[in-house]
Write a structure and sequence with these properties.
The complex is a heterodimer of chains A (93) and B (644).
Chain A: E1 6-7, E2 16-22, H1 37-44, E3 52-58, E4 66-70, E5 75-79, H2 81-84, E6 87-92
Antiparallel strand pairs in A: 1-6, 2-3, 2-6, 3-4, 4-5
Chain B: H1 10-23, E1 29-36, H2 42-50, E2 54-58, E3 65-72, E4 78-83, H3 95-104, E5 116-122, H4 126-138, E6 143-148, H5 150-155, E7 159-160, H6 162-169, E8 173-175, H7 184-192, H8 210-227, E9 228-230, H9 236-245, H10 248-269, H11 271-291, H12 296-313, H13 316-332, H14 334-347, H15 356-361, H16 366-371, H17 379-388, H18 398-408, E10 413-414, E11 418-419, H19 420-447, E12 456-459, H20 467-501, H21 518-530, H22 537-546, H23 552-560, H24 567-581, H25 584-596, H26 601-611, H27 615-643
The chains are: A mainly beta (93), B alpha/beta (644).
Chain lengths: 93, 644
């Protein structure tokens, strides 16, 4: 794991990052899914390695869930803080 | 020719007429599956192609709606278009997605095999759509692609080499804009080029694992690199609107305002047409009843059928109003935002953000609400949502609340502005919502323990709702509601009329006829059971037909207290009679009962159908019964002790 990588959940509102790694092992609170499934769902909706993410919005309580813009196309995806921990990004300054 | 009416060009229309006459003999039938990811405009395209020629049923064994539409192509090919639920992949996670896969792979015995897949892709989001296309290619079934929302894509500056894309994917691509009906004719023409039975390749599809998903994405990326001539801009408007609607505090306030408007619409605006319909059925009933007061057939027609079915049909305006709101919220793309805003709040009691929509629909009626739980992927989450849906105050409870509040709660202004009666009504709604949330927590904690399911939800770009689409979508609930009123409810009404009319009273009877009927006997038999919560046998009798439809209890009470006259005067005088006959403790107890009680057979039947087992409707019935009895007992006893 590269040292400059942080989980998506650590990005601030408006900040951008490039996805470098998606790793289910990093999930803090288990979700009830078979192995590989969460990673697959995140990939299926379009969050994939080397794509750019931009944090757009947070929910009211504990800033959860998070809304991110995926790629340049502007698809917006909502994801919970817990699940966003498995997406490691390289922040863009 | 159904596609005709979509044609604006008279020349094309003329050509089509000629073609039609020359090819009648060659007309073939094709089954086409309409597949696409959520929010790609698939339903709009389905409606544009088939118009109102649609049939909605259920797939046997599963609870997903089977939507078929029919139309003819210019060359007279008769198309059966099977609309499949939106999906990101052919693999199945929810009941909805399983159906998509099973239809594509011809797993339903009652369904014929699909000849052709029409895949819908969103021109403003190619990268999100092409992976499904690559999966569909693997099935070996011939493919036609409708590149939808091409008008919006052009506005945003997207430009693609469609010819090249078509060559790379090895299938025809037609640009469409379903809401404007452009490209729909061309799409129908393309279907004519297809000859049944040819083109089919071997199925090579296998469930993609995460590495396969990655390689699909890689291929999609390569394709887009090759065909993209100009990159468009994301929807600026959507982002601007989201700045307001997803703002944490303001967003929630707006959501609550929309909900408030919705209730306002259902409970005050919709009551205007409702009143007119009520008047109509009342006069029809009294007109028919007056024809021959001694005839049983007339009595059945007037008091059983017209009164019974009429008392259900009058809820049509409310159901249409709430459906209209929900369709518009869905069409514009707001529903996903509501799930985003509510997710954490609902998560507190263990509900999934997606449960918000079904629970919202349950305020109109628990039946569409329970049906809407199909979009919840996880079975446990879905069951909890189904179980608590009947605790949301449905519109059928209103007549009872209105009657009892009118009779027993004084008209008084409290806190300087609020009407006490309105406040009590609001309190009953809140009581329903809170008990629903508490029950969800209990169910989740004791019976469905387990980790939370993830929330990974696309927030689609905002769109203007399309009036034609709204109309078509609105006809569906109306149709099914009227059908229900005309079949099941009609049958139940006849039975209830029979039970409360026979045996007939003796000649020298002094009490009302219902005293001597089967319903009366049953009511008196059950009375001791309900005495601890203050119910008289008349109430018990009213509760039984109230199982068919809650609001019927009002008319049964009216019958029992031997009243006559128009319904409005019945309600007023019934309220006066109740004030004298019942103590306030009994009235409050009955109100509490109606907040919780499983007073609706249809809801239980739908729960049985949706869960495919008797277990959950039985659990639902049992817990609601316990809650209702407990709440009524507490309310009755407390009120009694306060009076004395």
């Amino acid at each position: 794991m590269q040292t400059n990588l942080i989980p998506l959940s650590k990005l601030n509102k408006g900040q951008k990052g490039i996805v470098r790694q998606i790793d289910e092992q990093l999930l803090p609170h288990d979700v009830e899914l078979e192995a590989g499934e969460l990673e697959r769902r995140i990939l299926e909706i379009g969050i994939i390695e080397n794509i750019e993410l931009k944090v757009l919005h947070f929910g009211l309580i504990n800033r959860d869930p998070i809304a991110v813009q995926v790629g340049g196309d502007g698809t917006t995806i909502a994801i919970r803080r817990n699940e966003s921990e498995i997406i490691l990004v390289e922040p863009i300054k | 020719m159904h596609s005709e009416k979509h044609l604006k060009d008279k020349n094309l229309h003329h050509q089509q007429e000629q073609v039609k006459t020359s090819h009648v003999a060659h007309g073939q039938n094709l089954r086409v599956a309409l597949v696409g990811k959520p929010n790609c405009g698939k339903t709009a395209l389905f409606n544009a192609l088939t118009g109102s020629r649609q049939k909605v049923a259920n797939y046997s064994g599963v609870t997903v709606e089977k939507k078929h539409g029919y139309f003819s192509t210019p060359q007279n090919t008769l198309i059966t278009l099977v609309d499949l639920p939106g999906t990101y992949s052919l693999r199945s996670r929810s009941p909805d997605e399983k159906v998509t896969r099973d239809v594509v792979f011809n797993q339903f015995q009652e369904e014929q095999a699909v000849d052709l897949i029409m895949a819908v892709i969103d021109a403003t989001n190619l990268s999100g759509c092409l992976r499904l296309i690559l999966e569909l290619k693997q099935t070996g079934i011939p493919l036609i692609i409708a590149m939808n929302m091409s008008d919006i894509a052009r506005l945003r500056g997207y430009e693609y080499d469609i010819k090249k894309l078509s060559a790379m994917l090895d299938c025809p691509i037609i640009e469409t804009a379903a809401t404007k009906k452009t490209g729909v004719y061309e799409l129908a023409c393309e279907l004519d080029k297809f000859k049944q039975g040819t083109h089919v390749h071997i199925n090579q599809w296998q469930e993609p694992d995460r590495e396969m998903v990655r390689s699909y994405h890689k291929r999609v990326h390569e394709i887009i690199q090759a065909v993209e001539k100009r990159k468009g801009m994301p929807s600026v408007w959507s982002h601007k609107i989201d700045q307001i609607l997803l703002q944490p505090v303001l967003g929630l306030i707006i959501l609550l305002t929309i909900l408030f408007l919705m209730f306002q619409a259902v409970f005050s605006w919709a009551t205007i047409p409702q009143g007119l319909m009520q008047d109509f059925f009342d006069s029809a009933q009294s007109y028919v009843a007056a024809l021959d007061p001694n005839s049983f057939a007339i009595s059945l027609l007037a008091n059983g059928i017209i009164a019974g079915v009429g008392s259900i049909i009058v809820f049509l305006p409310q159901i249409l109003t709430i459906s209209l709101f929900i369709i518009i919220l869905e069409d514009t793309g707001y529903m996903a935002r509501a799930a985003f805003l509510m997710d954490k709040l609902m998560g507190g009691v263990g509900l999934h953000g997606r449960a918000f929509i079904p629970l919202l629909s349950s305020f109109a009626c628990a039946i569409p609400g329970i049906m809407a739980t199909r979009t919840i992927e996880n079975r446990k989450d879905r069951l909890v949502t189904i179980l608590i849906a009947p605790l949301m105050t449905c519109s059928a409870r209103l007549p009872i609340y209105t009657l009892l509040i009118g009779a027993f709660i004084p008209v008084k202004t409290v806190w300087g502005f609020a009407n006490l009666q309105g406040l009590v009504m609001f309190g009953l709604f809140v009581a329903g919502i809170f008990s629903g949330l508490i029950m969800a927590f209990i169910f989740k904690f004791f019976f469905f323990r387990g980790d939370r399911q993830p929330l990974i939800l696309e927030l689609p770009s905002y769109k203007f709702p399309n009036p034609y689409n709204i109309l078509i979508e609105l006809i569906k609930p109306a149709k099914s509601f009227i059908k229900r009123a005309g079949t099941i409810i009609l049958a139940v009404m006849i039975i209830i009329w029979f039970l409360s009319s026979f045996p007939t009273p003796p000649v020298n009877a002094t009490a009302p006829a219902i005293d001597y009927s089967i319903a009366g006997i049953v009511g008196k038999f059950l009375e001791p059971l309900f005495a601890p919560i203050g119910f008289s046998w008349q109430i018990v009798v009213a509760l039984i037909p109230g199982m068919a439809a809650r609001e019927v209890a009002v008319s049964v009470l009216a019958t029992i207290f031997a009243l006559s006259g128009s319904d409005d005067s019945v309600r007023q005088s019934l309220a006066v009679i109740l004030q004298h006959q019942w103590s306030i403790a009994t009235a409050l107890s009955l109100i509490a009962w109606y907040v919780f009680a499983p007073q609706c057979i249809s809801t239980l039947a739908v729960a049985k159908r949706e869960t495919n087992s008797w277990r959950w409707p039985i659990v639902m019935f049992a817990y609601q019964m316990l809650l209702a009895y407990g709440a009524s007992f507490v309310v009755y006893r407390i009120t009694l002790s306060l009076i004395h």
